[in-house]
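Design a sequence for this backbone.
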């Protein structure tokens, strides 16, 4: 967001036409950003994590999330769901 703040004040940038993109974890963060702000006109997410529960068992690094989320999806379901959805979704 600090980079977007900086760019918005540049003469060559139209602040109403700023986009955001990211891949892998950057894709996860792009998904998170567009779920928490209307600041960006466009968003492109690639190779992103959308559901942390399925990521846990279907990727080469997902198993390590238990350290970050204080447990596995079956033992700390609420934390995985909270971090896998937008603030407006109802699971």
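Sequence:
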């Amino acid at each position: 967001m600090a980079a977007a703040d900086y760019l918005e004040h540049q003469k060559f940038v139209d602040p109403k036409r700023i986009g955001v993109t990211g891949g892998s974890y950057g894709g996860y963060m792009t998904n998170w950003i567009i779920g928490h702000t209307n600041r960006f006109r466009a968003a492109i997410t690639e190779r992103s994590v959308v559901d942390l529960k399925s990521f846990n068992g279907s990727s080469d690094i997902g198993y390590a999330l238990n350290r970050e989320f204080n447990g596995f999806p079956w033992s700390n379901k609420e934390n995985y769901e909270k971090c896998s959805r937008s603030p407006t979704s109802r699971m």
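The beta strands are 19-23, 42-46.
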